[in-house]
Fold this protein.
Amino acid sequence: MSESNCLFCKIISHELDAKIVYEDEQVIAIEDINPVAPVHILLIPKKHIESLDKVTEQDSVIVGNIQIIASQIAKDLKLSENGYRVVNNCGKLGGQTVYHIHYHLLGGREFGWPPG
Ligand code: AMP
Ligand code: ZN
């Protein structure tokens, strides 16, 4: 999917509404519209990268920062003590439905392993 008709690019440009929980120059974090856990936040780089499969070394700062932001949001939401999960779904078999790279921050319940 190209940038011009990408759902997350439209949220990033504020063309579409979302509940924004964090924003800086490179990253936006929003509440997932269809939460699968009491806390379900999407961390999305503002740069349109289709999936984890398409990242390059140029993206190392953004991808690294996302983990730090996830950890900070988890602390703010008091998830740290009990734990939480950060997930990237990549491609068809990985369960990706929106082709703009994003990470799910999930918390507030226990998660099984292996994932379904
Ligand atoms: P994935 O399946 O890993 O590509 O994740 C895409 C996620 O985006 C799903 O969890 C959806 O519920 C979520 N989603 C889809 N549309 C919206 C939207 N307009 N606002 C917030 N989250 C959305
Ligand atoms: Zn996009």
